[in-house]
Design goal:
The complex is a heterodimer of chains A (123) and B (110). Chain A is mostly beta strands. Chain A has strands at 3-7, 11-12, 18-25, 32-39, 46-51, 58-60, 68-73, 78-83, 92-102, 110-113, 117-121. In chain A, strands 2, 4, 5, 6, 9, 10 and 11 form a seven-stranded mixed sheet that branches. Chain A is globular, with a radius of gyration of 13 Å. The model of chain A has no long low-confidence stretch (mean pLDDT 95). Chain B contains no helices and nine strands. Chain B has strands at 9-12, 18-23, 35-40, 47-50, 64-69, 72-77, 86-93, 99-101, 105-109. In chain B, strand 3 and strand 4 form a beta hairpin. Chain B is globular. Classes of the chains: A mainly beta (123), B mainly beta (110). Chains A and B meet through strand 5, strand 9 and strand 10 of A and strand 3, strand 7 and strand 8 of B.
């Protein structure tokens, strides 16, 4: 079964840091770009970041550029998101999502999603 | 990058059709064929229903169809069923490795 499982969500103070992980199984991880998408409470989905299948390209929404870093470990079939300088507006459920096609940059359509992990930024 | 505009809600009776609009600009929806639609039930991750404007992934019923005209894309759900009640989101590639989503539409089956 193709599956993505997020972890690492927590309550953190403004200005703090958090690292999210996404464990993939059931497909050839290294062949696909993977992304992070978030959903703030009561709001819609927001694309956060994508990393290409090779890891050579990483892309960010303006709202997180310079604060978040996406990375992948193909030996462990794992995607990570390092989040620094967290703000209240970063509060959301964070989903990892698999690109629908092989070999892409990932900033397109996503055919497999995880269940999400909750990040709360509050003092 | 501004979010795409969707109506906050839509509804229909079982068996009827409902159409959800997704309005962007010439920098996103109007300029690319990369419009997708997702369905999300409470507490679950989103599910891809339509990609590249009007293509259905394997396993998605043909009751779901997509189209685009100018800067506005649309999702039509025909023959509404109780399990179609969910939030629906559109997304579009917006150039220079940027992706934008719509604000979401809650579909209610009356």
């Amino acid at each position: 079964e193709v599956q993505l499982v997020e972890s690492g969500g927590d309550l953190v103070q403004p200005g703090g840091s958090l690292r999210l992980s996404c464990a993939a199984s059931g497909f050839t991880f290294r062949n696909y770009a993977i992304s992070w998408v978030r959903r703030p409470p009561g709001k819609g989905l927001e694309w956060v970041s994508s990393i290409s299948h090779s890891g050579g390209g990483s892309y960010y929404a303006d709202s997180v550029k310079g604060r978040f870093t996406i990375s992948r470990d193909d030996s462990k079939n794992t995607l990570n998101l390092q989040m620094n300088s967290l703000r209240a507006e970063d509060t959301a459920v964070y989903y990892c999502a698999k690109d629908r096609e092989t070999g892409g940059h990932g900033v397109n359509s996503f055919d497999v999603w995880g269940q999400g992990t909750m990040v709360t930024v509050s003092s | 990058q501004s979010a795409l505009t969707q109506p906050p809600s839509a509804s229909g009776s079982p068996g009827q059709s409902v159409t959800i609009s997704c309005t962007g600009t010439s920098s996103d929806v109007g300029n690319y064929k990369y419009v997708s639609w997702y369905q999300q039930h409470p507490g679950k991750g989103p599910k891809l229903m339509i990609y590249e404007v009007n293509k259905r992934p394997s396993g998605v019923p043909d009751r779901f169809s997509g189209s685009k005209s100018g800067n506005t894309a649309s999702l039509t759900v025909s023959g509404l069923q109780a399990e179609d009640e969910a939030d629906y989101y559109c997304s579009s590639y917006a150039g220079t490795y940027n992706l934008v989503f719509g604000g979401g539409t809650k579909v209610t089956v009356l």
